[in-house]
Design brief:
The complex is a heterodimer. Chain A is an alpha+beta fold. Chain A has helices at about 20-25, 35-40, 75-80, 105-110, 150-165, 175-180, 200-205, and strands at about 5-10, 45-55, 60-70, 85-90, 95, 115-120, 145, 185-190, 210, 220-225. By secondary structure, chain B is an all-alpha fold.
């Protein structure tokens, strides 16, 4: 059976440490744009931890919400792209084909989650980060959009390996960089077509909800809402 | 029609083609320099990277797309005005139509540049064209940007034909009055026009077909431009009213541009005898009508949003109505309604000067309207964490200014090379009997199988 990759985010477990953000940056060759560009809103974070304060000091509560591409089944970014750079793969991923992208940025406008990023300049890395680029991930040139791929390079590698070993992928064999690095295991990645997988189990939780679910985008990321008062 | 009037019309209207003043060259050099600066700025943007503009996450469209919608809107002057006036056979259209049709063609040429200027990789713009290619894929026909591509190229082709057809007899006239290489160029453009009855009939039928065909094309073009916004699930974009709202706004700004162009031509080319106050008065009334229609659309759109009180839309509503965009928003309301309405409603102020002032105000207001549709919505989408602000950078401002210079330059050159008022149509109109006969022949021919 085909895989259908998804994620569950337990907001009770998220501490806002941003290890996922750092891991994602290292895994996916995301350029560092520098302080000046980041200050005007050109920073790229395929996953970000949104902070929301509730109440007034001293009774303030801080809520974290990691937001990444929701890999929607009815993705608004896909139909608007004139060149099929943004398209749906057979496994349900919202793929971004960098070579097809001509930079209309329409997908980013259509995305309700603002998780798509534009390369305003050719990519660069603060030294010595340029020495640790991931050879499995292409770098993106100026003028194209990029976004979370659910670490598609890991997915493809694991699927190819499983095929050559003539075995099936087991739950937990494959993790995205963010899920792998989350110390609180707030991020759980896996196959939604496997009803026994951890991610399927969590996605069925009564605490589960979809981000901006009423827009009808059918995300494959499920958020488990907070219950603790901590 | 006496030969004297005939000769006078020909002389007056061809004079700009035959004499060239130093002022003309200075104007062309001045406008050309600004256009060159704009092209240079674009080259700089491509060389340095798109980041030299003010675009930032999450506001990925701003000045360039505003200019795109604005200029495509201006282009609705020509076709709609001239096609409608031709179809209803309004006598006063005769000196107006070509000015209007030329605006359409040039505004479209400028507007159509912006989807390319705003691309991250503009050198690959031709990937929007469906042709057999090594990539092995078609463009995505579900994308409104691809619809745009077809709509604008159809409209540009149609409006070039619409401008060119009634020009043929005038080009032949110029051909007969020039010598040497000029005669060969105009002769080529005149397509062997000899003024035979058969040719007149063919011209009339072609013009009639084009006048009818161009109307739905013009309306569809700005509807499709509005679909660029209304197809996306963005607060205050995703609206059913956008199609007619954009078309009304387009005609509104188009008429304003036409009034300004006519006033400038009247002054600089000394066409006071041909462009009368009544032309401005009539166009002023049309502008008044469109101002009211535009205000109605804005009211209907804003009231339903406010009454519906949907959270994400209200965030955009508040920031435009009362927040950081409020100064621009209320300037827009003043420019599009408060100033033009009394100026154009009162006969005493509906003079040439009054109409031109109102038209300038409308152009400012309509540019702001497009900006205010695009930017506040993108800056205030659903998740408040990702709200953002936009500030234009010099690159965008320079390119925006240069488009106005480009419009003026194209228009100046056009008025230099082609009689900007249709000579033959004016001659037909100059004599009541001839005009009547002309219409009768026309009507007779139309009813024949």
């Amino acid at each position: 059976m085909a895989h259908r990759w998804g994620m569950a985010v337990d907001l009770d477990r998220c501490t806002g440490c941003e290890a996922c953000v750092t891991a994602c940056r290292a895994e996916n060759n995301i350029p560092t744009v520098g302080a000046a560009q980041a200050a005007v809103g050109r920073a790229m974070h395929w996953i970000r931890v949104e902070r929301y304060w509730e109440g007034e000091f001293p009774d303030a509560r801080l809520k974290f919400r990691p937001v990444l591409c929701q890999q929607c089944d009815a993705a608004p970014c896909e139909p608007v792209c004139p060149t099929y750079a943004s398209h749906h793969t057979e496994e349900g991923l919202n793929a971004q084909v960098y070579n097809r992208c001509i930079g209309t940025r329409y997908c980013a406008n259509a995305c309700p989650y603002n998780v798509r990023f534009f390369n305003f300049f050719n990519p660069q890395w603060d030294k010595p980060l340029h020495l640790q680029l991931n050879p499995d991930v292409s770098v993106r040139e100026v003028g194209v959009m990029e976004k979370c791929t659910f670490c598609v390079q890991r997915i493809n590698a694991a699927e190819i390996q499983a095929r050559s070993d003539n075995t099936a992928l087991k739950d937990g064999d494959l993790k995205t960089a963010c899920a792998q690095s989350c110390p609180a295991t707030a991020l759980v990645f896996g196959d939604l077509n496997d009803p026994e997988s951890e991610v399927s189990r969590l996605s069925r939780s009564p605490r589960g909800s979809k981000l901006l679910g009423d827009l009808g985008t059918l995300p494959k990321v499920t958020y488990l809402e907070r219950q603790s008062q901590a | 029609m006496t030969d004297a009037t005939d000769r006078k019309i020909t002389d007056d209207l061809l004079r700009p083609l035959q004499t060239t003043s130093a002022g003309f060259w200075m104007l062309v050099a001045f406008l050309g320099a600004i256009v060159a600066a704009g092209l240079g700025t674009w080259a700089y943007q491509m060389y340095r990277g798109f980041g030299v503009s003010g675009i930032r996450w999450p506001i990925f469209w701003a000045f360039y797309v505003t200019n795109f919608v604005f200029w495509i809107g201006i282009s609705h002057a020509g076709t709609l005005i001239s096609a409608i006036l031709r179809l209803v056979n309004a006598g006063w259209r005769r000196p107006v139509t070509r000015c209007a049709e030329a605006i359409t063609v040039f505004a479209l040429m400028i507007g159509a540049m912006f989807p390319i200027i705003h691309l991250g990789r503009p050198w690959l713009f031709f990937w929007l064209i469906p042709y057999p290619n090594q990539r092995g894929i078609w463009p995505n026909f579900r994308s409104p940007l691809v619809w745009d591509f077809f709509a604008i190229s159809t409209y540009l082709t149609g409006s070039v034909l619409f401008l060119f057809l009634p020009m043929i007899p005038d080009l032949a006239l110029v051909r007969d009055r020039t010598t040497g290489w000029r005669q060969r160029v105009y002769g080529g453009l005149a397509l062997g026009w000899r003024g035979t009855t058969k040719q007149w009939h063919r011209l009339e039928s072609a013009m009639q077909i084009m006048a009818i065909a161009i109307l739905p094309v013009a309306i569809s073009v700005h509807t499709i431009v509005s679909f660029d916004f209304s197809m996306a699930p963005v607060p205050m974009w995703h609206s059913t009213i956008f199609g007619p709202y954009f078309v009304a706004g387009a005609i509104f700004s188009g008429i304003a541009a036409l009034i300004i162009a006519m006033a400038v031509l009247r002054k600089t080319l000394h066409l006071e005898e041909y462009l009368h106050p009544v032309h401005f008065e009539n166009l002023g009334k049309l502008l008044l009508l469109m101002s009211l229609l535009w205000t109605y659309f804005v009211f209907a759109e804003r009231l339903t949003v406010w009454y519906g009180n949907e959270a994400s839309e209200m965030a955009v509503f508040r920031v435009t109505q009362r927040g950081s965009f409020a100064p621009l928003y209320w300037t827009m309301v003043v420019c599009n309604f408060v100033i033009p309405f009394p100026l154009l409603a009162l006969r005493r102020t509906r003079t040439i000067a009054g109409c031109v002032f109102a038209a300038c105000s409308v152009l400012v207001g309509m540019w702001l309207e497009r900006f205010l549709i695009i930017v506040p919505s993108l800056g205030h989408k659903y998740l408040p964490y990702s709200w953002g602000v936009y500030r234009p950078r010099p690159v965008e401002i320079m390119i925006t200014i240069s488009t106005f210079a480009a419009m003026a330059l194209l228009y100046v050159l056009f008025a230099k090379l082609v009689p900007i008022i249709s000579v033959w149509e004016l001659k037909v109109g100059a004599q009541p009997v001839a005009a009547k006969e002309h219409e009768e022949v026309h009507a007779l021919w139309r009813t024949e199988p």
